[in-house]
Amino acid sequence: MTQPPLRIISLIPSATEIVCSLGLEEFLVGRSHECDFPPAVKALPVCTAPKFNPEGTSGEIHQRVSDLLTSALSVYRVDIEMLEALQPTHIITQAQCEVCAVSLGDVEAALAELTQGQPQLISLSPNRLADVWDDIYKTGVALLGKAGQAQGEAVLAGLKQRVQTCRDRTINLPSPTVACIEWTEPLMAAGNWVPELVDMAGGKSLFGQVGQHSPWMAWGDLVAADPEVIVIMPCGYDLAVTRRESAALTAHPQWSQLKAVKTGRVYLTDGNQYFNRPGPRLVDSLEILAEIFYPERVAYGYQGQGWQPFSSGPD
Asked: Is 218 exposed, middle or buried (CB count within 10 Å of its CB: 0-12, 13-18, 19+)?
């Protein structure tokens, strides 16, 4: 029996990038409202939408999302009519963070309402880099069977080689202490895979635990730790919006006391495209950190596109 053609809907940007890294971009038929890489996927039908107004300051967005969660409401909606029309064979979602993307529960509820067919649900739940490797492998197997196994192994071999090359370039260099900030108002440190990437790039992560959700942090903790490097990577923000939202940091009376501020070692990143997406471009994120930590020794070409010094002025 001939297997029917794949019709894949990805409801999280990192999964879209995983599918494309496996060479299956042509089989994508739908995406989430946030999937935007590779650029061609933006032409696909959109199957999700936020239930809150995504415009505004970090503090305002935090309050809107908190209000929804406090009311036991989901943060995103799934377009059931669009799912029905697209007739997918597979839907990829996540169970890692209900704030970042449509939840597994929301997708399962939507599938229960479908009247035509029952697509296979692939749920990803990455908390550390090894989990991302596993997700790439299991997605290949779920979509292509044994052929996907081989393709996944090939993709992983290339990614792991880049990781090793980056580590080799920084292994004997001094290790700066680093604070990675994932939200500016209220203040949140980056967790999950980010502390791991910091350490692999040659730094010493001060906040967040590998494999654990990003923790809220107090200004007093940041001042007490006094990091040598601060990397700002708000979830879902590009460089321009990150610069704007960093005003909440500079306005704090203790900001100017920090060592990283005094020495000009504060950096903005495109967290939306890199650090916040647990897919193949976490390796790009590792390389970005290596560039930031060791600008005189490491150059991959991400400056200006993936990161920039905070002191460099407006975009």
From this structure: exposed
